[in-house]
Amino acid sequence: MTGWRVRRPGPTRGRPLESVSMPVPEPGPGELLVRVRVCGVCRTDLHVAEGDLPVHRQFVVPGHEVVGEVVAWGDAVGAGFGLGDRVGIGWLRQTCGECRYCLRGRENLCPGSRYTGWDEDGGYAEYAVVPAAFAHRLPDGYLDEELAPLLCAGIIGYRALACADLPEGGRLGIYGFGGSAHLAAQVAIARGAEVHVMTRGDHARTLALELGAASVQGAADPPPVPLDSAILFAPVGTLVPPALEALDRGGTLAVAGIHLSDIPRLNYQRHLFEERRLRSVTANTRADAHEFLAFAGEHRLLVTAKGYALDEADRALTDLREGRVTGAAVLIVG
Fold it and tell me: What pLDDT does 23 receive?
C-alpha cells in the first residue's frame, strides 16, 4: 500500500514527510483492519512532523482523524462490527484500564495511554489498524470528508468547551478559528452561548460570522464584552495574557492544544486575581467522543473542509502551517 511516514522531524520546508510503499498491516487480537477512505490533517500531525512533540515511534505514519470501512479483524474482537461498516479512528488509541485515572473515568490522563499517528501508525495511508474498543461508530447524514474532522478537532473542541466551564447562556471567547474552533463554536451556539472570536485570518473571521459569532476581531484584540469563559485553540503562548485579561471575574481559560509556545510572564493582579483560572486540555476520553458524536448526529454541524489527494499530504501540512486552510484539511485516500 501507499502511505506517508515522518522521515526526519523538522520544519515543513524541509519536507519531513516521505511517501513510501509499505505492507498492509495485519490486525492483531482485538483489532480491526480498516481501509482508509479519508483522513483529516490535524495540527497535532504538524507538531509530530515538525518535532514539536518528542518522537514516540520512528518513521511513524501520521493521521488520527480516519474514516474508513472494516475489511478484516483479528482474534477476540467480539460482536459489534461487520465487514463494510463505516468506522472512525481517533487520537486516543489505548489505555491501561486499571490505573486510578482510568478507574475514575479520566482515561485521558492514563500514564499508559497511546495515540494514533504518534505511538502507532495512523491514517496517512491506504489501510490502518485500530483496537476495536477504541473505534468509533459514526453519525449518519455526513460525507466522509465531513466526518473526519469530527474525530479529533470536534472531540477535542467538545472537551475544551467542558473544561472552559461555560455557564448557561454565557459569553465564550475563542482564540484561533481553525478546524477545532469552528466546530466548538457551533456546539456552544447551539447551547445558547454568545460567541466572540479572536483570530488573524480574514477568511476565518468571515466563517465565524457565517456560523453565528456575535463578534470577530484580531487575534490579540479585546472582545467587546467581558467573557465568562475562553478557549485558546491557536498554539501561541503570547495570546494567554490577553485572553486572561478578557475574562470576567471567575472566568476560565482552557488551552486546547497539545503544544503551546512559551507563555510570557503573567501579572497576578491583572491576569489571575478575582478567581480567574487557567487550565490545560489533555487528549479526550471515549465518553467525550461518544457524547460529541451523538451531539453531531442530533445537531447537523457545518464542517468546512478543504480536500487534498493522498499524494498531496506534505502540501496539506504546509498549507496548514502557513494558515492557508480555512476550517479543516482532509486527505481523500480511497
Answer: 98
